[in-house]
């Protein structure tokens, strides 16, 4: 998949989410507004990281690193 | 925050697809790999974890009847440490939702929509689930009530239609290498059963509280029976090559041929799996959104549904580079991961709650 297209798609998704929730966003309390924007920003940042470095180690690798010794004890390999 | 109420039967109907939907995708092959012809026994061992987890969740619920797991972990472990436990739950459910969406996407891509981009399949499912989650717990519960009977009937129909292809001798010799292989085969399905801990987030919204325990255990039994039936079917139809398939149930259903007329019923398998996966993702997604809102002490969770959906999509993409690595991860470290978060941590919470309530009559 081409990088620029996916990047553009992610921006479109984030903007669409923002526009769709705009009426509710206006009515929301300050704390909810902050959380909403922070979550969207987190999503966008993670999308950019994943687009440019698709092989960056993620939660799966972390979990695998922690629990793999147990899997070896039970010979699940 | 959540004003909706569900019935205990609806709770059971939400739990059923939340475990079945992916437990009959990749899991039978992994079970068959370890247990060989004793694979039909593994779900019965596995159900013990389900019963223990349900018992832990119910006991915790009795101590804190109006609170979900996120709220009472702060009460039990103190504000600071409770928040860390809450974060572990949040992260776990985000990661787990991502993995489930990915499993669903890989299944659809691998069998039916070979040329469709994975992101599109996963994204459209998350979008549909997001609308259900925004509707609240009642909407998810009613969707389950509509879809689950259909799923059960279709699974039963497949088993009946496969009877002509079944070879009972595939299950012999029983216990060729003792009881251990079937126990080892149970390690993976039992971790799926630990997902019963989801009821800890839903019990506060059950209207008929006194029936909650009964129906929660009832769903564990129903899940166990379904898995035993599915494993029997797969074993009888495919025999000792079961472990070589990625999706054994799918491959078994391809054998259906009645009077050279009723063939290629895979499309129905896809239909019920899309329904099952939809409910599973919706339940996980709902729990994740509700927990996030409670963890951050928001007054309403609806605003954060779509941003979290976007995160789930990214985590689904991030979960594994391909389906083989995903299967390897699910077959090795996942069981310990699921059990640690959904059985061991709640057990520690229960011990903490007992200690806090010592000397008082519960």
From TrEMBL, chain A:
Transmembrane feature ranges: 6-22, 34-53
Keywords: Membrane, Transmembrane, Transmembrane helix
Protein name per the record: Multisubunit Na+/H+ antiporter MnhB subunit
Lineage of source species: Bacteria, Bacillati, Bacillota, Bacilli, Bacillales
From TrEMBL, chain B:
Pfam family, one: Spore_permease
Keywords linked to the UniProt accession: Germination, Membrane, Transmembrane, Transmembrane helix, Transport
BP GO annotations: spore germination
Principal localisation: membrane
Subcellular location: Membrane
Membrane topology: Multi-pass membrane protein
Residues spanning the membrane: 6-27, 39-60, 80-100, 112-134, 146-164, 185-203, 215-238, 268-289, 301-320, 336-353
GO cellular component terms, A-Z: membrane
Family per similarity comment: Belongs to the amino acid-polyamine-organocation (APC) superfamily. Spore germination protein (SGP) (TC 2.A.3.9) family.
PANTHER family noted in UniProt: SPORE GERMINATION PROTEIN A2 (PTHR34975:SF2)
Record protein name field: Spore germination protein KB
Organism field: Anoxybacteroides voinovskiense
Organismal lineage: Bacteria, Bacillati, Bacillota, Bacilli, Bacillales
């Amino acid at each position: 998949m081409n990088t620029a297209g996916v990047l553009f798609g992610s921006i479109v998704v984030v903007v669409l989410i923002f526009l769709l929730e705009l009426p509710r966003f206006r009515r929301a309390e300050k704390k909810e507004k902050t959380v909403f924007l922070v979550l969207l920003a987190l999503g966008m940042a993670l999308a950019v990281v994943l687009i440019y470095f698709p092989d960056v180690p993620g939660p799966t690798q972390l979990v695998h690193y922690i629990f793999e010794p147990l899997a070896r004890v039970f010979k699940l390999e | 925050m959540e004003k909706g109420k569900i019935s205990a039967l609806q709770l059971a109907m939400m739990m059923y697809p939340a475990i079945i939907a992916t437990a009959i995708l990749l899991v039978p092959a992994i079970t068959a790999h370890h247990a060989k012809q004793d694979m039909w026994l593994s779900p019965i061992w596995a159900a013990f974890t389900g019963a223990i987890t349900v018992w832990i969740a119910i006991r915790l619920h009795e101590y804190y009847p109006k609170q979900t797991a996120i709220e009472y972990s702060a009460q039990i472990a103190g504000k600071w440490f409770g928040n860390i436990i809450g974060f572990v739950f949040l992260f776990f459910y985000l990661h787990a939702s991502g993995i489930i969406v990915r499993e669903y996407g890989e299944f659809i891509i691998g069998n039916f929509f070979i040329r469709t981009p994975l992101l599109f399949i996963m994204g459209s499912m998350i979008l549909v689930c997001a609308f259900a989650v925004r509707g609240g717990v009642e909407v998810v519960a009613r969707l389950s009530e509509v879809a689950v009977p259909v799923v059960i009937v279709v699974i039963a129909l497949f088993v009946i239609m496969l009877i002509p292809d079944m070879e009972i001798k595939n299950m012999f010799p029983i216990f060729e290498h003792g009881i251990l292989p079937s126990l080892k085969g149970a390690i993976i399905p039992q971790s799926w059963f630990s997902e019963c801990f989801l009821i800890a987030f839903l019990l506060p919204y059950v209207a008929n509280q006194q029936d909650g325990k009964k129906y929660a255990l009832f769903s564990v039994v129903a899940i166990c029976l379904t898995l035993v039936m599915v494993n029997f079917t797969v074993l009888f139809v495919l025999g000792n090559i079961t472990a070589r398939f990625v999706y054994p149930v799918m491959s078994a259903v391809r054998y259906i041929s009645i009077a050279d007329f009723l063939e290629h019923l895979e499309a129905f398998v896809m239909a019920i799996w899309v329904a099952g996966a939809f409910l599973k993702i919706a339940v996980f997604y709902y729990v994740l959104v509700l927990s996030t809102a409670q963890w951050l002490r928001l007054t309403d969770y609806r605003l954060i549904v779509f941003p979290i959906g976007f995160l789930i999509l990214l985590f689904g993409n991030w979960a594994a580079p391909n389906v083989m690595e995903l299967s390897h991860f699910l077959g090795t470290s996942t069981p310990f991961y699921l059990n640690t978060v959904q059985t061991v941590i709640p057990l520690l919470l229960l011990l903490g709650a007992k200690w806090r309530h010592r000397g008082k009559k519960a």
